[in-house]
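Review form for a predicted model. The reviewer records the input and the model, then writes brief findings.
Reviewer: anonymous (R2)
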Amino acid sequence: MDSGSAVVAGARSYAAIGQWSANAPQHALARLGARVVGALGVRVAPSAATIRRVIGLVCPGGPAGLTGADPVGSDSIAVDGKATRGSRNGTSPAAHLLAAMTGDGRTVTQLRVSDKTNEITCFTALLAPYDLTGITVTADALHTQRGHVRFLVEEKKAHYLLVVKGNQPELHRRLRALPWKDVIARRYDREMGHGRKETRVTRALTVTNLGLDFPHSAQAARILRYRTDFKTGTVSRQTIYAITDLTSHQASPQRLGQLARSQRTIENRLHFVRDTTFAEDASKIRTGRGPENMATLHNLTRSPDFATVLLDGLPCLAST
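Model under review:
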């Protein structure tokens, strides 16, 4: 866990983590579980070489499982993937990581996507270990897959709200053709910030008997986003379609809009932070399991439960 402490203190490389560990005071090493040597009980931090070896070799499932949040009781979980561009090594592609985060910003877990496949094949493996009963899972259009939906609703007893785009052309066409102008159930949301004004209009329509041919579909939503850039005066418009198994009694247009927006939580509170704060895309950590384990440390340090995990989670890394 001294690695996590070093990362939150700004360390971005194995050498920097080793330097932080070498300079850590005895009381800090004691709290981190560093090994004791000699009759005087001196705490000794692991060397930079040991840190490099452990982070590069340890199974990513161990740190990710120990430091991740239990999603039980959460309202929603967002699933999204990100490539760590700096990990590209010669002809080997950059490590691509698929992560899950609760609606209140706690990282549940992450999984490295095999170089020979894509996120779709890893979706069920990512979520399979967890109790998702009653939780609504959101994801981008890539994961709007019939198999994913059956897994969530039939096996995990969860709900879903998935964005529909051109990768599902027939479903997208049918959603666009629905009588949206006649829909009465709608919600308007307005907010200002970051130099722009945004207005969102969410319309919801029951689709149970409309022949959409998508498993467990109960409602469809159309979200219109209008954005005005105060600096340039530019007004942009975006239309988003989504589908869910939540009925109108379970989710109003307001609720559907909130769920659709919660997908941005993982982008803003995890991937954006890892890019800007930890400069993850510029990292030169490329070999072994280093990229995903460093990403796990980045996830940990931005967790609201970091202090608890710091003391109880992985003392073995400090005592190695």
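Findings: The chain has twelve helices and eleven strands.
Further findings: The CA atoms of residues 26 and 39 lie 15 Å apart.
Recommendation: see findings above.
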